[in-house]
Specification:
Blueprint lengths: L2 H20 L2 E5 L6 E3 H18 L6 H10 L4 H4 L8 H21 L4 H12 L3 H20 L3 H5 L4 H11 L3 H14 L18
Antiparallel strand pairs: 1-2
Length: 206
Amino acid sequence: MPKKMKHLDHLLAFVDLTHRFQQTKRVIHATGEDRMENDAEHSYQLALVAWYLAEKHALPLNKEKLLQYALVHDLVEAYAGDTYFYRDAAADQKKKEAEHMAAERIAREFPDFPKLHETLAAYEKQGDDEAKFLYSLDKLLPVINIYKDGGRSWKAHGVTLEMTAIEKSKKITDPLIAHYLTDLLDTLAKHQDMFATPNTNTDTTV
């Protein structure tokens, strides 16, 4: 096969990965629509909101790195799938193993994109301020989306306001995002009807 055709095959394979990523459904509803959110639109929204906050607050963050993290932070889910935010230790371990295998698969399939694999590994390591900021924002954004959607996903999966406050506070460590969470929880306290009541809590979600 001519060399140029091999390059085309590689491009087609990578585009297939983006399609697979787009087709990976998350466990929350798309705001205002009768479908589930997908990973591609979530990642795009996360990237744009991260950029907005970095500019708005003049954060001393590398914006290129921030956007790269946002674009790839969930890419392993193209093969591993999405999981509930609230999960037990066994489910969490299973998630980590599945995502590790997915990252290895992506590295095998696209050895000509080393920066992608480096970025995935760096985000997983959470070793810099950009990764920590993006991780915290990634935990906040679904709460905002579900609030804007009237709490549909919380009710569907039996999530209470207390669960949201406790679990999100554990995960959100960036000071700015934690401040946004505090303000958002104050707002949510005025909309208890968006949540499941404790005695109907039957499932979990993001």
